[in-house]
Amino acid sequence: MHFKPLIAALACATLAMPAFAQDKPQTAAEKGADDSNQFPPLPDDKSVDQTVQIAGRTIRYKATVGTIPVRDDKGNEIGQVVYTAYTVPGGGADRPVTFAFNGGPGASSVYLNMGAIGPKRVPFGDQGDSPSDAPVTTDNPNSWLDFTDLVFIDPIGTGFSRSLVDPDETKKHFYANDPDIEYLSKVVFDWLVKEERLRSPKYLVGESYGGYRVPRIAHELQSQIGVGVNGMVLVSPYLDPASGAGSTALSPLPWMVDLPSMAAAHLEREGRLTPEAMAQVEAYTRGQFATDLLQGRSDPAAVARLVDRVTELTGLDRNLVAKMGGRVDAGTYLREVHRAEGKIGSVYDSNVTGFDPFPWAAQQQSNDPLLETLIAPTTSAMVDFVTRVVGWKTTARYHALSYAVNQAWDRGQPDDAPVQDLRKAIANDPKMAVMIAHGWDDLSCPFFASRLIVDQMPSFGMAQRVKLDVYPGGHMFYSRPDSGARFRADAKALYGR
């Protein structure tokens, strides 16, 4: 997932490394050696045989927890990436393999693994799920394992993956946009070599900031490392950081991007959410809404028209919408739309709510209600699976979401690198297929941003090659069984299976 800037008061920690008395300055490699000695060694790769029921079939597979070293240009080991792989024996060279990444930055891959496409799932991300629910996994009927092997990769600082160098070197090598793409692309290549899978069809899946990663990894693999990618699936992707430029932006894009997701949530609450209804919302957003926004105070009738229509679409109080000039930001929407119930909506799915601990405060004083509830079930379920089921014994801490990584991340300036690399990758390979999947209610990575991006693709990015699918739900729409089933069916068609 992507840590939306409006989520304030994140618990922040710093990466602390012990200091050592020394007679002379140490090199980075020496520091890395010293720091690595402070960690207990990670276990050797471990596998266990399992079964899962998918689409009426029993799938027998091998679950593996393993480690891939990350090395600098001089060959020094500077990090260790831990992955979880599910492979079906006997598939041969034509069986696809899919590499999955979540986002944050600072999120492990557990959300795609145990929520969306892995063979086992634990409930989270939907209304009514609670941190105290038993973290018991069950077969995932919407898993993709019957048509592709799956490799879930935890970037450095997430899951059990770890840096072996000091904080400055860690930030340089791992906690910035470009180095992140470079080392993760090498991890994909190293896994393919290690498992002798270079001849297999290869796919990438990325959720949220993982959707920023995946087009860039695909192009890096294709053009720098020498590995072709057959297809990509971008789940609630954070594709264009510039589209959410903030509430003072002159551009109408931030307001255009958010409004359809607010309207979708309102329609869903009223039982009127349909593709036909949303087509009307999108047409209004592209047309009269954008025009009236740009008219501003030069046309009082445009302002009144804007306020009336936004009130109708969002379900908010008209006086509030009027005070905001029809420009309703996501934070205000999430706080106000459920205020009568004493609740706040989640930026990841505005119809997933939690009680507001400080309802009389002028601004939200708590973290996102959905983000807070998924840490416990995902962490407990994953650690139980790794240590008890697979038997990969470690005392290291597992980071499902690392606020320390998110805080340390060097974001640079907002860029459109993933959109550029997406265009380059599909231009280079006319056989590559791309699926972009969103939930209607997501205000963290709204679907309409991807709609506008896809509609601006050159002719080689035709609908058959770059496809946008939108499902009921939010950022983790797959937590709803029906949406997860449709997502699986659409992905299976992309794979040609």
UniProtKB/TrEMBL annotation:
Question: Which species is the source of this protein?
Answer: Stakelama pacifica
Database matches in Gene3D superfamilies: alpha/beta hydrolase
Q: Which residues form the signal peptide?
A: 1-21
Per its record, how is this protein called by name?
Carboxypeptidase C (Cathepsin A)
Region listing for Disordered, in residue ranges = 25-48
Sorted alphabetically, the keyword list is: Carboxypeptidase, Glycoprotein, Hydrolase, Protease, Signal
Output the PANTHER family linked to this UniProt entry.
Answer: RETINOID-INDUCIBLE SERINE CARBOXYPEPTIDASE, SERINE PROTEASE FAMILY S10 SERINE CARBOXYPEPTIDASE
Q: Which InterPro entries does the protein's record reference?
A: AB_hydrolase_fold, Peptidase_S10, Ser_caboxypep_ser_AS
Q: Upper lineage ranks?
A: Bacteria, Pseudomonadati, Pseudomonadota, Alphaproteobacteria, Sphingomonadales
The record's SUPFAM superfamilies line, in alphabetical order, gives:
alpha/beta-Hydrolases
Q: Which superkingdom?
A: Bacteria
Example GO molecular function term? serine-type carboxypeptidase activity
